[in-house]
Amino acid sequence: MREHIFRRNVAGRAMITGPLAVLIVFTLSFVFILSESIHRTIAAWFGCVCLLFLGLTMSVFNLCESVANGEGGHVFALFGGDGTVDICHESLESLMLSWIHFDVIGLLLGMMIFAALLEMSGFFEYVSVKAAKLSGGDPWKLVVYLGTFTTLISLIIDNVTAIIIIAPVTLRICQKLEINPVPPLLAEAILSDTGGVASMVGDPPNVMIASATKSMEIGDLFGFNGFLLRLGLLTFFAWIATLGYMRWYYREWRESKPAHVEAILEEDEWDAIDDMGLMKSTIAILGATVVMFSLTEFLHLHVEIHAIALAGAGFALVAARPEDHEMRHGLMHSVMEKVEWHALLFFAGLFILVGAMGNVGYLEMLANWIFRNFGSNEIMLAVAIIWVSAIASAVVDNIPFTAAMIPVIIGIGEADPSIDLAPLFWALAMGAGFGGNATPIGSSANVMTVSISERGPNPITTKEWMRVGFPVMIITCVVASIFMIIFHGMIYSSV
Questions:
Q1: Euclidean distance between CA atoms 483 and 488, whole angstroms
Q2: How far is 329 from 333, CA to CA, in rounded Å?
Q3: Distance of CA 401 to the CA centre of its chain
Q4: 281-334 pLDDT tens trace
Q5: Model pTM?
Q6: In 10 A of CB 244, how many CB atoms?
């Protein structure tokens, strides 16, 4: 770090320095977020405002940062010979904005627009009736069906998108059956987080890892097939263990008797469609967008996923021609009302909080601690990264943590070139994916699930989430550690 945590004034008394002040603001913000004493978006941006004040009054932040060559900057770049670029910003505001991952924000916004159009067409109502009929009104069958469906979707598209699409459906089903929607919503989020670990596109951290390793010698290992081959079996066992724990935890809820089952079974799901043309056009463009997600890797297209999502959403809006004249006239207003703007603002604030921690040196300290304690043993180093990533991802969203951890792993490789970095990146994918289950802010999918649950009478609380998610994190990370120890030299090593 650039300076000590404490300085002493002339009288010998300890004074709080900038880095410690940043840590205090970070800690207080997350206490407010997890305690739910105030709305999480307000808590996050309260922290951001405090960080801005610290930056202006104490000059705690370094306006020049080293990033990977090609990530860009705002003012000018000093190119180094190690594949990094020193980006220097004109102002503190420019620096703080650079910490926001607008690619993630763009992806979420694009998929939210798709979800809004599908909701307006009546698609979610159609699926809710169909799923309720398939389950026969059995609550646990409903959890298994919806959880499995969400997991399978998460293998093709990211789990955030899967939640944006399926969570409103779940809310409607539970309203029809008059059952508590919290168990199925939690199951969908946690199972999608767990299942998404096996896919390069299933979880945003995996996309970031694949992108970071693309220019490295081990880059060929981290493609779509590479993730599925090396993490597929692990994820299957972790998924089964997760479902088993949730079945035990919700044993009383499983025995509940839903209301109006007979009436729902007699409903015609096609009657729920309000606008067939709007539904067909939106599904067709959404399908094409998902296909493009996969083709970018296979065809080596230099197009980012968030750009594809926003472009697809734009085409969907252009193609939308609602049959109802009033709906057509107020289309944009209706779509914008359904976008979860507060969730997007929360993500932006979260990125700034984590970016500040990296800027003042705390993430570098974490890297040094990991390497100092586990660097002599490659397998134990990988296991340590699993648990450190899991615990950290439970405190902050796994997307900004992964962004901060990637250069840490690269730094470990630079400190000791003999270390194989492939197991470390696999360990990061495991830890960030499984660890995100522990808290409602552990992953982007979790945040979206909580946000959508607030539309109903039973919003998911932090307490309820952690009762389910924290044990799941422990169980899945134990499974991941066992896999890393047993199969390290066979499937996770690059040699």
A1: 7
A2: 9
A3: 10
A4: 999 998 898 788 777 767 777 787 788 889 999 999 999 887 766 677 778 888
A5: 0.74
A6: 11
Burial track 216-227 (b if 16+ CB lie within 10 A, e otherwise): bebeebbbbebb
- Phi and psi at residue 79, in whole multiples of 5°? -80, 130
Residue 82's CB: how many other CB atoms inside 10 A? Answer: 10
CA atoms within 13 A on the CB side of 119: 23
Q: Where are the domains of the chain?
A: 103-342
- Partners of residue 68 on adjacent β-strands: 84
